[in-house]
Amino acid sequence: MDVPLHFAVKTRLVDLLERLGEGAALPPERTLAAEFGVSRWTMRQAIRELVADGRLRARQGQGTFVATPKLIQPLALVSYTEALRAQGHEPAREVVAFEEVDADAELADGLGVAVGAPVHRLERVLFADGQPIGLEITYLAVERFPTLRAVLRPTGSLYRCLTDELGVRFGEGEEVVETVIASPREAELLQATQSMPMFLLHRRSRDVDGRPIEVVRSLYRGDRVAFRATLRP
């Protein structure tokens, strides 16, 4: 079976990136096309795919650079803060909104409350080493966590607050992962383009007694984050 030309070029470019190393500037498109003996269109296509894969990063007006390795986010009930620090990165958060909303039918089902019941809606941009990598919206029942707003630090870990301040013991959760295109607002918050691939995660978690804790919608930049799950028979 014939391999598309741009895919063969992409494979050769990956070898070049490994030789150049993290943060190195990629030679100009014209130079690479001449060196590889292909058209600039073919080279441009291969470079675009490597940007989408997270292997290259384009900086407006500066050029294209070898990207740092993707962050690994475990698919587990663990703190975002602890997961990043375990990999040697510095996590941070920025609160976009912290408000009360009325539960619709889907939220009511996920949180075990009546339709129309008040629900905390916490929206935050997630950062790693100063760069935005995710946008997370968490919903929690006000009836169960009436003091959440008072005890949660804006830049603190929500999971640590729930466990240390509010006595929650996480039991189990379920998570669904899909790929989506970000809305204009989401792309702006994540300093990304709308064409960039994104991972969308839907999570529901329960405590050790089976009571609902949270419903979460998380959007992650596909060029910066990968996911890992431990599978057992």
Automatic annotation (TrEMBL):
Domain HTH gntR-type stretches: 1-69
Name the Gene Ontology molecular function terms of this record. Answer: DNA binding; DNA-binding transcription factor activity
The record's listing under PROSITE patterns reads: HTH_GNTR
Q: What is this protein called?
A: GntR family transcriptional regulator
- Enumerate the CDD domains for this protein: WHTH_GntR
Query: What's a single GO BP term from this record?
Result: negative regulation of DNA-templated transcription
Q: Which Gene3D superfamilies match?
A: Chorismate lyase-like (3.40.1410.10), Winged helix-like DNA-binding domain superfamily/Winged helix DNA-binding domain (1.10.10.10)
Q: Give the residues annotated as coiled coil.
A: none
Q: Kindly state which keywords UniProt assigns to this record, in alphabetical order.
A: DNA-binding, Transcription, Transcription regulation
**Organism in which the protein naturally occurs:** Kribbella italica
The top of its lineage is: Bacteria, Bacillati, Actinomycetota, Actinomycetes, Propionibacteriales
Q: Does the keyword Transcription regulation feature in the UniProt annotation? A: yes
